[in-house]
Amino acid sequence: MNSLYHNTFKDMMNDKLPQLAILGGTGDLGTGLARRWAVAGFQVIIGSRCLDKANAALSDLRRVMAERGVASFNVRAMDNLAAAQAADIVALTVPFSHQVSTLESVRPALKGKILIDVTVPLVPPKVARVQLPPQGSAGQIAQALLGEDVRVVSAFQNVAAHHLQEGHGLDCDVLVCGDNKEARAEVIKLVEAAGMHGIHAGSIANAAAIEALTSVLIFINKQYNCQAGIRVTGWNTQDSVAENRLADGSRAK
After folding, report:
1. In 3D, which of 199, 169, 246 has the Cα closest to residue 9?
2. Contacts 24+ apart (CB under 8 A), 182-187
3. Could you give the CA distance from residue 39 to residue 70 in angstroms, rounded to a whole number?
4. pTM of the entire structure?
5. pLDDT tens string 41-84
6. Closest C-alpha to 117, from 100, 131, 129
7. pLDDT one-digit tens code per residue, 9-28
8. What is the DSSP annotation of the chain?
9. Mean of the pLDDT values across residues 220-241?
10. Could you tell me if 55 and 77 are in contact, meaning their C-beta atoms sit under 8 angstroms apart?
């Protein structure tokens, strides 16, 4: 466990940790996030359209945790709607083609909550080519569909699922977009709890640039046979942690 992961986890334990649901959480990206948040002490719900698939992902997670010597964690399996209803913060990790239908199926359960949209508008077979939707980005689609009652935050698009599945810290940054700064700050805490650096990257409109970078990274990975990520230079990671602590203190007053 790297120092960022460890220190953030200790800080967050001073407060009641939110319960997290991952809709479409049976794929590589969803299970990677589930493993990291579970190790950090969060209650995690793996959601799926098919409960059997969610239970299978939970069984696999238990196997991985046992192999890594993690004895204590709290993860459950539910269908997507039940997961969204039970959670405080919801993450969406489905393919772009299923984004709208999944959100429509759980829309009433998201009211008043933060939705972390991890969707990338990849259009097979040319996934290494930027092909953004007419609405601008998947993040903007989610915010427009759900309305002001849901604070949509776009994050994690530029992190390789393979790296998320590994059991150590990641040397990469996560750009976090959303129209509500406090919601972005909450998601940045989850980024840091998962062993990465989170950076405020502006409004949900800026998600277009970040989603587009995913196709660029796919091309780079194919060209150089690697698993590239994003690093932002010229900023101090401690400033970000301090800003989140200050925001917490402001809300507590």
Report:
1. 169
2. 182/247, 182/251, 183/114, 183/151, 183/153, 184/153, 185/243, 185/244, 185/247, 186/18, 186/89, 186/114, 186/153, 187/89, 187/114, 187/116, 187/153, 187/155
3. 7
4. 0.90
5. 999 999 999 999 999 999 999 999 999 999 999 999 999 999 99
6. 100
7. 445 544 689 999 999 999 99
8. --HHHHHHHHHHTTSPPPPEEEETTTSHHHHHHHHHHHHTT-EEEEEESSHHHHHHHHHHHHHHHHHTT----EEEEEEHHHHHHH-SEEEE---GGGHHHHHHHHGGGGTTSEEEE------TT-TTS----TTS-HHHHHHHHH-TTSEEEE--TTS-HHHHHSSS--S-EEEEEES-HHHHHHHHHHHHHTTSEEEE--SGGGHHHHHHHHHHHHHHHHHHTS-------S--HHHHHHHHHHHHHHHH-
9. 85
10. yes
For domain 3-252, is the CATH number 3.40.50.720? yes
CA distances from residue 134 to 7, 141, 200, 204 in whole angstroms, order as listed: 41, 10, 25, 15
176 strand-pairing partners: 200
List the structure tokens of 214. Answer: 């995913």
